[in-house]
Design goal:
5 domains; globular; Rossmann fold; alpha/beta; Elongation Factor Tu (Ef-tu), domain 3; 40% helix
Length: 742
């Protein structure tokens, strides 16, 4: 058995390797513009405009890249759309545009330090040992159990480490909140932790709501520490440090607000017209704000000491002595499957008892380094590393693993797959879920159907890799998915998610929605993202676009690799009432083993008659969007009309061994003199202005770099069966993106 000291040594080494990697290669990149030199007596301070609000803590280490020039530095001020940094090198008076690189590796350094302290304490080392080697015997009285909540209260009273397995929609937040409240009613101290601010807010909100309902809420007993306290806690502002300081020391709160407001106005002035005087004033303001924040800090430390329940992030807990120097009766770590194992161990050392809660069938933690110790300790969750998952293949639960068995989120037609294939038939549906999701299922598209496979087989060879990032994208599936979003929005869906394994495809959808659907996007609460962004949220309608198809000759690692089961599970289980799966069945059956999760999902949907093919495209597309029209590919009048009214350019892609018909040739020869014609083909075309000797796998026409016809000329289409469909998209951004790939 591994000793606790060996664990700690390996964790510290893994964290150091990840820090080294982040320092060398950087992580989050932010575009910054209009850099102006504020002081040139070293370190050199610069003011930059930023496209988005960048919130990096003052004092954080950063790197700046301008072309080939690089410099390390730190943040002096970061608020709103402007940032001041102190650099080690002088880049001159003006920097038109550059990249700012920031990664919170300092937080990992703090964690390494915490383990130095844990090493010295026998009690803390014992807590880590109990987490990593959970006992095969439980001590709680099983005969007394009355409910899920009661079982967790008993388990966390009698056992040092309890692992809660909470599949999506099984009432994890409900159960944890009531367990924490029960400990509070007994005057026990509870620390609630998670990797994200949002997860902490959700749990603290539920907890406060429950304590208030019981009429046992006392100001100061429940504290949300740190974070930006967004909408989730708007109904419970009284648990935030901000509001409590405002109440107890209004003068201090007022001074802070006044200085922050002054800083905001100054930054607006700097963005409009730059002056040295303003920048000096701004740096002076930052110093005053720092002094005020030191006073606020003292108040906050006292609030944390006095509270019975404290909620904060893992990062804050590891870096803030106000949290890590206290001892708690119970620590609850939520969303633990996304936390590093060392973070879970650090959480466990802070309390007499620990509850580790999450779903190890969802996405694991993310780390960048390829070092073996990083792979071992930072890329797998604590459930696996503590050995509580091992008996599952024999459908045996570890004695310390407590499973929440009933899901209340998904319509049963959606959960049927995940319940059986992902959760080993250990999870069932609550009786209420069929009725509660009926109102969503009844909406178009595909009325009265909760789970649909929109099969894109034999619609062409559309899946290619982005030239810069190598991430895959598929324009045909992108446009079909957009159509599903449009139909769902018009039928009244309240929230819609578009999810895909590939970043290039997610970015393309984001770009398209921004350009042609911005108003509707807000109205229907539409999010487009890769799967990682969706963990922890839920939507009425989910569209899962797997992207992969011909001309690729193998499926991508994202949908076949080690983590593919988890990725697909997250994509499905965000859904409440309608799961629309856009996939190429023919490609998946040809290129994927039958044991792979995506292949199992496709087979399950086919077996349950949940498939819709292109043959019925005319029946489900009820609402043509003004910027996206679907047309029979043999009807060429509309494309010829577009070409006839071209103002500057026509670009045509002719895949291998395809020739234009006489009708198309005539149309192109009759174009105006000022219209530049570009042909992409491996066959010479003498009548064009530009001939690109390349093979593109699918045909398209781009007119004036703003109108795209996908699927035309039909003569160039490969791997297509009737009905022959073409799409006309009016989007300068998608046209620009596609032209960059040539």
């Amino acid at each position: 058995m591994t000793t606790t000291k060996t664990y700690i040594k390996e964790w510290q080494q893994a964290l150091q390797q990840e820090i080294n990697h982040l320092k060398k290669y950087g992580g989050s990149r932010y575009s910054v513009k209009n850099g102006r030199l504020l002081s040139n007596d070293g370190p050199y301070s610069y003011y930059f405009d930023t496209a988005i609000s960048i919130r990096i803590p003052v004092g954080s280490s950063i790197k700046l890249e301008w072309g080939m020039m690089k410099s390390s530095g730190r943040v002096l001020s970061s608020e709103g759309r402007g940032i001041i940094v102190a650099l080690e090198k002088n880049f001159g008076d003006l920097i038109p545009d550059a990249y700012l690189l920031h990664d919170p590796w300092e937080l990992l350094e703090q964690l390494i330090e915490r383990f130095e302290e844990i090493k010295k304490s026998k009690q803390k080392r014992l807590r880590v040992k109990r987490l990593m080697n959970p006992s095969m015997e439980t001590k709680h009285p099983e005969e007394k159990i009355k409910s899920n909540v009661h079982e967790l209260i008993l388990r966390s009273k009698y056992n040092p480490a309890t692992f809660v397995w909470g599949p999506p929609g099984t009432g994890k937040t409900y159960t944890l909140a009531r367990t924490a409240a029960n400990k509070y009613f007994q005057k026990k101290k509870v620390l609630i932790l998670s990797h994200s601010n949002q997860a902490v807010d959700v749990l603290m909100g539920e907890l406060t709501e429950f304590i208030k309902k019981k009429k046992r809420f006392r100001e100061g007993d429940v504290l949300r520490y740190g974070g930006f306290n967004g909408e989730i806690l708007s109904a419970h502002q009284e648990i935030t440090t901000n509001l409590m300081i405002e109440k107890h020391d209004p003068l201090l709160a007022h001074d802070r607000e006044r200085l922050v407001e002054e800083r905001r106005h100054l930054k607006q002035d700097l963005a409009l017209s730059f002056s040295k005087r303003d920048s000096d004033l701004l740096l002076e303001l930052e110093t005053k704000i720092t002094r005020i924040l030191e006073k606020v800090r003292k108040k906050e430390v006292q609030l944390v000491k006095d509270a019975f329940i404290v909620g904060t992030t893992l990062a804050k807990a590891a870096s803030d002595s106000a949290v890590y120097e206290l001892n708690y009766d119970l620590v609850i770590l939520d969303e633990a499957s996304m936390a590093y194992v060392p973070q879970a161990a650090f959480a466990a050392n802070l309390g007499k008892r620990v509850i580790i809660c999450g779903d190890f069938k969802q996405l694991p933690p993310i780390a960048s380094s390829r070092d073996p110790l990083v792979a071992k300790w930072l890329k797998e969750d604590v459930f696996h590393k503590a050995g509580v998952v091992e008996g599952l293949n024999e459908e045996k639960l570890h004695p310390q693993l407590f499973l929440l068995k009933e899901q209340r989120r998904m319509h049963p037609d959606i959960s049927a797959f995940t319940n059986e294939y992902i959760y080993h038939s250990l999870v069932g549906n609550h009786e209420s879920v069929y009725k509660s999701r009926k109102s969503i299922t009844s909406l178009a598209p595909f009325k009265e159907r909760a789970s649909v496979l929109l099969d894109t087989s034999f619609t062409g060879l559309h899946c290619i890799s982005d030239k810069t990032t190598n991430s895959r994208f598929n324009l045909w599936q992108l446009l079909l998915s957009f159509q599903l979003i449009h139909e769902s929005t018009l039928s009244g869906a309240k929230s819609i998610g578009y999810v895909t394994p590939y970043r290039a495809q997610a970015n393309l959808m984001g770009m398209l929605l921004e350009e042609i659907y911005e108003e509707k996007r807000r109205q229907a609460d539409i999010i487009a993202a890769t799967v990682h962004r969706f963990q922890g949220s839920e939507r009425d309608v989910m569209i899962f676009d797997t992207v992969d198809s011909a001309p690729q000759n193998r499926a991508g690692m994202l949908i076949t690799g080690k983590e593919s089961e988890r990725l697909i599970n997250v994509a499905i289980t965000r859904t409440k009432g309608k799961f629309l799966h856009v996939s190429n069945r023919n490609f998946i059956e040809k290129h994927m083993y039958s044991g792979k999760t995506l292949r199992q999902l496709v087979s399950h949907q086919v077996r349950n008659k949940q498939t819709v093919t292109t043959k019925v495209i005319g029946s489900w597309i009820q609402n043509q969007h003004p910027k996206l029209r679907w047309i029979h590919a043999r009807k060429v009048e509309a494309v010829f009309q577009d070409m006839g009214s071209a103002k500057s350019s026509i670009t045509i892609s002719l895949p291998e061994e395809s020739n234009l018909t006489e009708e198309w040739t005539k149309q192109l020869l009759n174009r105006g003199n000022r219209i530049k014609l570009t042909i992409i083909s491996n066959q010479k075309w003498s009548e064009c202005d530009v001939w690109l000797d390349e093979i593109f796998p699918f045909p398209f026409v781009i007119i004036d770099e703003k109108v795209l016809w996908l699927g035309l000329p039909l003569e160039g289409a490969r791997g297509v069966q009737p009905p022959y469909v073409a799409a006309r998209l009016s989007s300068s951004k998608v046209c620009e993106y596609l032209l960059k790939q040539i």
